[in-house]
């Protein structure tokens, strides 16, 4: 029984030691557009003959898509491993991503490539000034809107106050005062009536 356990343990150690290990160099690239860069796929077994397949993912853990060589991306062989080198020419922003090599179904750890456009100081200064100008313009527009709102509110308050303002004096009957002539207003009107038959002065 002991010899059986020892044999199994030894077999596990041997299988681990001969397991295929793949490394990639470098593990990260930060490059500008139109640059060139190689990625190496290194295999632990120097005597292994095989073909490397290259895959690309948008980020670590995302789905991998097989890479097909073109006029900007080509494969080169190293030692006995075919396509062990992935070579970029004239990099573009869309080339950013994580690149994996695989041999016999075993994937490497991946190499992240980030491609950025070169910085133009004149354009950067212009964009900065444009941004500052837009911020000042937004501040002015905000101040105008707040001032218009406050002015409108003040006018509405004045209008509402004038609707409920009572007049100081009542001028409806002004100028219609009737002389009392020493008596009542209506009771003694007959006293001033003309006698029937009296002639008018102009007759």
List the topology elements.
Elements: H1 2-17, E1 22-25, E2 28-32, E3 37-43, E4 50-51, E5 53-57, E6 65-66, E7 73-78, E8 81-88, E9 97-103, E10 106-107, E11 111-116, H2 121-163
Parallel strand pairs: 2-11, 4-8
Antiparallel strand pairs: 1-3, 3-8, 5-6, 5-9, 7-8, 9-10, 9-11
Describe the structure.
- There is one protein chain.
- With about 200 residues, the chain is of the alpha+beta class.
- Among the domains are: about 15-115, Immunoglobulins (Immunoglobulin-like, Sandwich), CATH 2.60.40.10; about 120-155.
- It contains two helices and eleven strands; from the N terminus they run αβββββββββββα.
- It has helices spanning about 1-15, 120-165; strands spanning about 20-25, 30, 35-45, 50, 55, 65, 75-80, 80-90, 95-105, 105, 110-115.
- Strands 2, 5, 6, 9, 10 and 11 form a six-stranded mixed β-sheet that branches. Strands 1, 3, 4, 7 and 8 form a five-stranded mixed β-sheet that branches.
- Residues about 10-15 have low confidence and may be disordered.
């Amino acid at each position: 029984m002991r010899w059986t356990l020892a044999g199994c343990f030894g077999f596990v150690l041997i299988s681990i030691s001969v397991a295929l290990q793949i490394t990639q160099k470098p593990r990260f690239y930060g490059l500008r557009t139109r640059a060139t860069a190689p990625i190496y796929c290194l295999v632990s077994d120097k005597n292994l003959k095989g073909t490397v397949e290259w895959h690309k993912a948008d980020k670590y853990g995302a789905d991998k898509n097989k890479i097909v060589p073109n006029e900007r991306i080509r494969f080169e062989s190293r030692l006995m491993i075919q396509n062990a080198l992935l070579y970029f020419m004239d990099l573009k922003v869309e080339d950013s991503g994580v690149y994996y090599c695989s041999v016999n179904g075993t994937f490497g750890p991946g190499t992240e490539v980030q491609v950025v456009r070169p910085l133009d100081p004149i354009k950067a200064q212009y964009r900065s000034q444009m941004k500052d100008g837009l911020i000042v313009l937004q501040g002015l527009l905000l101040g105008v809107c707040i001032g218009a709102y406050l002015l409108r509110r003040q006018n509405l308050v004045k209008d509402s106050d004038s609707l409920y303002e009572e007049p100081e004096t009542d001028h409806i009957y002004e100028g219609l005062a009737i002389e009392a002539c020493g008596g009542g207003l209506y009771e003694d009107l007959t006293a001033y009536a003309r006698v029937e038959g009296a002639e008018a002065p102009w007759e």
